[in-house]
Amino acid sequence: MLDHEYTTKEVFQNNFFNDWRKEMTSEEQEIIQDLAKCDFREIHKYFVDKNEARKALSKEEKQKLKEEADKIQEEYGYCILDGHREKIGNFKTEPPGLFRGRGNHPKMGMLKKRIMPEDVIINCSKDSKIPEPPEGHKWKEVRFDNTVTWLASWTENIQNALKYIMLNPSSKLKGEKDWQKYEVARRLKDVVHKIRAGYRADWKSKEMRTRQIAVALYFIDKLALRAGNEKEEGETADTVGCCSLRVEHIQLHPQLDGQQHVVEFDFLGKD
After folding, report:
1. Domain check: are 124 and 186 in the same one?
2. Using one digit for the tens of pLDDT, what is the confidence trace for 137-157?
3. How many helices (H) and strands (E) does the chain have?
4. How many other C-beta atoms can be found within 10 angstroms of the C-beta atom of residue 4?
5. Concatenated DSSP letters for 233-254?
6. Which domain, by its residues, includes 114?
7. Strands 121-123 vs 111-112: parallel, antiparallel or unpaired
8. Same domain membership, residue 112 and residue 219
9. Fewer CB within 10 A of the end CB, N or C, for the chain?
10. pTM for this model (two decimals)
11. Where are the beta strands (DSSP E) in the chain?
């Protein structure tokens, strides 16, 4: 949780200024010592003007931009998998910028650095044509791992999390994975009535742990909540799921909006 003495705005500004100073020269650090005295209006105007110019493009100019984007898609947006041409999902890396995160994220405002070829691991077949890095650069590593589905990966600098370039959801491989999930759902429908009867019976168990698991199962079943995992405090956004809900996320109302015994949930979830 964030320290209540700091507002979201203050956390954002502090993280941004600390990261920005790391990128400054010693001379710049001498000059720029107070973020409140910095004037970003010219930068803001540049992006507003750029956005307005994009909106004002003619039909022909927009078509030209589309054709250029299609050309890039054709060159970089496909791969060959088991002899089939498959579409790649996110073949572009994120540009540098300011990290936002979810809710009151403790790292909001930090600088997301530009991804360089030296940060990227390429994964392909031994007998394939290895993609050429930009001139003057080299890949961090080229590996030939057919036990994973990602085509390239790198570690982002904010949370040191791995990011991947994967196949498009319409690809054969992704379709097979989805099919397997649907098969699990088909099997579940034949036994779900037993599961529901089981957790309802466990509500009356003498063991609190058994009762708690039964209630958690009920919430996941009826409200479609994510299970939720424990995480390091202060390192990530305070997103929670069913099993990591806390007392402050729930309110019990004897009566609300004409209904009796109402449970109100208020928490930051994931997607």
Report:
1. no
2. 999 999 999 999 899 999 999
3. 7, 10
4. 6
5. TTTS-----GGG--GGGEEEEE
6. 8-56+90-166
7. unpaired
8. no
9. C
10. 0.67
11. 78-81, 84-87, 97-98, 111-112, 121-123, 141-143, 152-155, 162-165, 250-256, 259-265
